[in-house]
Amino acid sequence: MEIKYNYLPQEFSDTDEIITQWKKLITSTEFTLGTFVTDFESKFAQFMNAEYCISTNNGTDALILALKCLNIGMGDEVITVTNTFYATVGAIVAVGATPVLIDCDDRFQIDIEKIRKSITKKTKAVIPVHWAGSSPAMKKITEICNQFNLFLIEDACMGIGASIAGKSAGTFGDINAFSMHPLKSLNVMGDGGMVLTNNAEYASWMLKYRNHGMIDRDNIEFWGVNMRLQPLQAIVASFGLDKLGDVLNKRRANARQLDNALSKLIEAGHLDLPRRVETHYETCALYMGLFTKRDELKEYLQKRGVETKIHYPKPLHLQQAARKNCKFDSNDMVNSEHQARHLLTIPIHQFLGKNAIKYITDQIFMFYEGHPV
Ligand SMILES: Cc1ncc(COP(=O)(O)O)c(C=O)c1O
Question: What is the location of CATH 3.40.640.10 in the chain?
Fold first, then answer.
């Protein structure tokens, strides 16, 4: 059996509905902003139970837009986690602020106690990441931000559709960022992103900044940039949102099947899986476990047709780029460094059925125990 990590050919094998809407767009020639974009923004805000959605060109822009709106820049520190995608930190550097990188916990999520310890007079904001589509303890993070008067910006790029006790990931912070990159739970055919906020002033500022600071065609209020979502992608996103519930149900069922089958390897000491929190609804963006003999296992699976990934082999404080701009304590990164050495991301996507997941777990068992599950 061949199990590819990439499921986009299956996902976009039938695009008739999308193309019908694209034809309408082409007839309308509303190629920048316009009703296709605003319709999607309203639909997403409603889905998330938030007041305002401002779509952007991608998730990185969404983070930059949030930071700019909160006036975070030169001389300010922003605390975030070291095991995230480059863009979380890149966005902080892009606005001229200093990323303060801290370790993650055993669930791959930002270590809350280390947030407290890293707060200085210069700290302006915290950016927790809903890493892998799971969530950190947002209630506690919100309390810390309130206590120390810090802005909270959620990086919910991997967390569209996740929730904690029924409250959506990406609705806890002041302004929160999402990505619709092709490998996200809500994805488009290229790049896309958005921010959510419940603050009318922030929303009004971001709407303008995203579009050159324009009040109307002939007047600008302040200098802005072009971060606009393409209407072609707004159409794709709108169809994607209708299917999101189904996609997440399938991914979660696959995750449960993997959890159940692999639990025996935990007892045998070959594997460590992040603890799942009952009140957290995960998007299962990435299914990651910490495996002994990870690199040999990866190669073994590859030879048997199972394509796996590593997210990521290097936490950000170990990247060359972190030698400049970033602040961190390299002696206090035990979890992220341990995880980077052992983690393997197993395919879990919505087009894999029970047999495919069984095939994967059988191969993993063959590797460790010499027999299928
Ligand atoms: C955690 C995280 N933050 C930010 C981003 C950036 O999003 P984008 O690729 O849409 O710019 C991504 C995804 O790529 C991500 O996974």
Answer: 8-239
* pLDDT surpasses 90 at 373: no
All CATH 3.90.1150.10 domain ranges in the chain, comma separated: 246-369
Q: Which two tokens stand for residue 187?
A: 């994805």
Looking up tokens 């055993």 gives 106
The CATH class, in words, for 246-369 is alpha beta
| Tens digits of residue pLDDT in 124-148 | 999 999 999 999 999 999 999 999 9
| Closest ligand 1 atom number to CA of residue 61 | 11
Residue 14, amino acid: D
- CA distance readout (Å), 301 to 2, 103, 287: 10, 30, 15
CA 87 – ligand 1 centroid, Å: 6
Contact between residue 135 and residue 280 where contact means Cβ atoms under 8 Å apart: yes
CA distances from 287 to 108, 134, 149 (A): 11, 10, 35
pLDDT digits (tens, 9 = 90+) for 302-361: 999 999 999 999 999 999 999 999 999 999 999 999 999 999 999 999 999 999 999 999
Contact 218, 245 (CB under 8 A): no
The DSSP secondary-structure symbol of 273 reads: -
CB contact at 8 A, 70 and 154: no
The answer to whether 70 touches 267, Cβ cutoff 8 Å, is no
For a substitution probing ligand 1, which of 57, 109, 158 has the most ligand atoms within 8 Å of its CB?
158
Interval between CA 245 and ligand 1 midpoint (Å): 21
pTM flag (> 0.90): yes
| Fold that domain 8-239 belongs to in CATH | Aspartate Aminotransferase; domain 2 (3.40.640)
Q: Is 192 helix (H, G, I), strand (E, B) or coil?
A: coil
Pocket of ligand 1 contains residue 179 by CB under 6 Å:
yes
CB-based contact 207:228 (threshold 8 Å)? no
